[in-house]
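Input (structure):
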């Protein structure tokens, strides 16, 4: 994925600081020169003609040049220091933002894992329904798992909104993708709950299996978006610290939606 880098926001202040430093040093050189001439003419009563002779002029030129060189060196050093501090502060902020996004995605992944675990338990209960050796997940367990997914995904969206200036406008595509799959989780869970309690396994096994499969597919969709977001957030926010880039996800199924934070991904 190609990651665009914007110019540092601190560039204009750095430029003005450099110009200001040069002007200050130049003004100081002129003032010092004026004071030196004044003291030489008034206090020491030197002949004004002495100041237009070659040797004093060369000495003066060397002094003025030295002041301007010193001013240039100081301004460059000041600009480099400010630029280094700005880069350090930006990288530190980007690292904090990534940590916040990563924490939110990990919380969502844990919630999804719990739902998938319950769906696997339901599949096992269907497969061994005739033997009664597998326990069906309760309505409360499924509803709690769904609620945690919703809560964690919404928290992730809030985090992305909070740092929209850093992750860019393409984060809206992640919102749309996560919202679509979150809605699919909710609708399919409602269908699954309508087929419970377990005795309906005998009456509508095909519908149960289809609904569980659709619910699992929606959960996997959310997990895919979380993986995409983690990788691309690393490229975008930590790209200034590392040379390696995480490639975008390339699913073999063309119907699987892959979302990008970058137009060129």
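Output (sequence):
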């Amino acid at each position: 994925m190609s990651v665009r880098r914007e110019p540092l926001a601190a560039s204009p202040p750095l430029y003005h600081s450099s110009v200001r430093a040069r002007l200050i040093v130049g003004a100081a050189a002129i003032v010092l020169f004026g004071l030196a001439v004044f003291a030489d003419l008034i206090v020491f009563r030197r002949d004004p003609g002495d100041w237009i002779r070659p040797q004093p002029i060369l000495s003066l030129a060397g002094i003025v040049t030295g002041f301007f060189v010193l001013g240039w060196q100081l301004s460059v050093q000041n600009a480099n220091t400010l630029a280094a501090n700005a880069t350090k502060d930006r990288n530190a902020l980007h690292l904090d933002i990534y940590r916040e996004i990563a924490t939110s995605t990990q919380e969502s992944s844990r919630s999804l894992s719990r739902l998938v675990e319950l769906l696997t338990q339901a599949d096992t209960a269907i497969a061994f329904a005739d033997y009664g050796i597998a326990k069906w997940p309760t309505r409360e367990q499924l509803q709690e798992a769904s609620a945690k997914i919703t809560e964690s995904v919404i928290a992730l969206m809030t985090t992305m909104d909070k740092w929209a200036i850093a992750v860019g406008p393409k984060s809206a595509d992640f919102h749309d993708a996560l919202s679509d799959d979150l809605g699919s989780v909710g609708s399919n869970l409602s269908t699954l709950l309508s087929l419970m309690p377990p005795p309906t396994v005998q009456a509508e096994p095909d519908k149960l299996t289809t609904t569980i499969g659709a619910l699992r597919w929606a959960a996997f969709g959310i997990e895919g978006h979380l993986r995409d977001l983690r990788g691309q957030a690393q490229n975008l926010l930590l790209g200034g610290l590392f040379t390696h880039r995480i490639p975008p996800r390339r699913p073999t199924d063309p119907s699987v939606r892959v979302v990008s934070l970058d137009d060129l991904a």
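Notes: The chain has two domains: 11-87, 90-238. The chain is about 75% helix and 0% strand.
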